[in-house]
Amino acid sequence: MAPWSEPSKVMKIPYRQIAGNSSKDKVSFYTLNVDKFRDLAEEVGVEALPTYVLVKDEDVKDMIVGMKRQELEKAIGDWSK
């Protein structure tokens, strides 16, 4: 996420809703300011905003780019089983 990114701003509320509705013992949610942590964003492969990276057992399992709430919800549901 980035404070200047309009798509990131638009997805802020849905992202928080998804995080609030997810099982806390199975899923953790973090946001990363790409301006402050550019190296980490590049390491993970962030090329556009917003980008959602799903990690399980320290491996990247899925990456969703863009304002795709339904796709994000489905991926979280699939990987949190």
TrEMBL record:
Stored InterPro entries: Thioredoxin-like_sf (IPR036249), Thioredoxin_domain (IPR013766), Thioredoxin_H-type-like (IPR050620)
Residue span, Thioredoxin domain: 2-76
Domain of life: Eukaryota
TM stretches of this protein: none
A Pfam family of this chain: Thioredoxin
Name used for this protein in its record: Thioredoxin domain-containing protein
Originating gene: LOC101783832
